[in-house]
Amino acid sequence: xxxAGIITIIILSTLAVRxxxxxxxxxxxxxxxxxxxxxxxxxxxxxxLGGDYSAISINPAGIGVFRKSEIVITPSLNNNxxxxxxxxxxxxxxxxxxxxxxxGLVTTFxxxxxxxxxxxxxGFGYNRINDFNRNITVTGVNPNxxxxxxxxxxxxxxxxxxxxxxxxxxxxDADVIYNPxxxxxxxxxxxxxxxxxxxRQDQSIVTKGGIGEYNFSFGANYSNKLFxxxxxxxxxxxxxxxxxxxxxxxxxxxxVINSYTFAQGFNTHGSGLSFSFGAIYKPIELLRIGAxxxxxxxxxxxxxxxxxxxxxxxxxxGFPDNVYKESPVGVYDYHLTTPMRATGSVALxxxxxxxxxxxxxxxxxxxxxxxxxxxxxxxxxxxxxxxYKSASNLRLxxxxxxxxxxxxxxxxxxxSPYVKGYGNDNVLRSSLSAGFGIRSNxxxxxxxxxxxWQNWNNMLYQYVDxxxxxxxxxxxxxxxxxxxxxxGFRF
Length: 491
Prior knowledge:
Layout: E1 2-4, H1 8-13, H2 22-29, H3 37-41, H4 55-58, E2 70-86, E3 89-110, E4 117-131, E5 134-141, H5 147-155, H6 168-173, E6 200-222, E7 226-248, E8 257-284, E9 287-294, E10 298-313, E11 322-326, E12 330-337, E13 341-349, E14 354-364, E15 369-371, H7 378-387, E16 390-402, E17 405-414, E18 429-439, E19 443-465, E20 468-490
Antiparallel strand pairs: 1-20, 2-3, 2-20, 3-4, 4-6, 5-6, 6-7, 7-8, 8-9, 8-10, 9-13, 10-11, 10-12, 12-15, 13-14, 14-16, 16-17, 17-18, 18-19, 19-20
């Protein structure tokens, strides 16, 4: 549906044709902790608990809680769905993925003391911290505008050599827009049936990839009261996106054009380096208090971007029925600095009966920053500082024990990173989770289920009508269902 007032933050988010944008910075900076089935079924509220390999990505002091060596692995099955509504038409798309969510090895060295330095542990492993696999489909008949309006408005007043080769120049070369009077300078562009709307619009967005963190960690236990830890994290990032937008004359009242498809392909890969440290303090047997700091991740990334236009015309003598044009391939090498994270945690451990835990995480997304030796990202970095803010994330979890059996539940709420009044300023991400576990002295098995939902305003394009800028937005509900199984061995 059409919505006025979607301004700079969304405008910049459409400019991947020229350089990386604020949407990329946010996408690669957000962290949704993966890991073991036990951790996720408790909402990933493990900052004050430790003793679980997932906890190292939240609070590295958690490795100091281990009293035995351990090997753990967690496969998962993900079902991502997107239910979009656009001009009264709803469409649900889904995507299944089988992923490796976690694996880890912890080696613990005990001093056989109960005071002083009781034990030390070394760890190496992997935790998935973001998943980009998703299919989104939008469809509907638009009575108000066409994407060709945006092409025309971007082109008008510019000579062909000044047009963006990835965007409006492609539309001109494919003949879906044109200059009707070459005697008027600078050129003014139009398209056939401008002002006659009602074409069906279809958008498909297919994304793949994720971010995985490889951890090298060290922790120690002092008198079973104070647990300290630090971790070096190496993030591996891959992101592939194919976005297509098609307009089709379903009523047969648009001159010349039957349909056209505008496709955008965007691929990013690279790696990052981060460092974290933390502590867990147990003043009494019942209470544990945790705190951790994750320094910014420094990514070195490479992206490539290209577009194409495939136009199908009504049969007109002297003109081709089909025109296909491709842009050049833009390749960008650059660096991204993500925000620092600070987490405070508290847990009540009720002996052999169970526990409850809470994590509070603070992230300032206005500190995200691009830089490059070849290109200036000043405009994008200024927009990030202006339109993004700090966010608070809350994670809650609990566990009930019945001998070797444990039942678990959790909830997580991730706050909006946007300044109020801009784009998706009210977007919140919520998760509900549950699971169970069976443990013995040398083996454990855990199952978990996580249901995550988020409402999102997906902008197809924008255009100017008079003095107002409008954005064509599809209301989209994103849902993820995840089933995990963890297999662990202690020795």
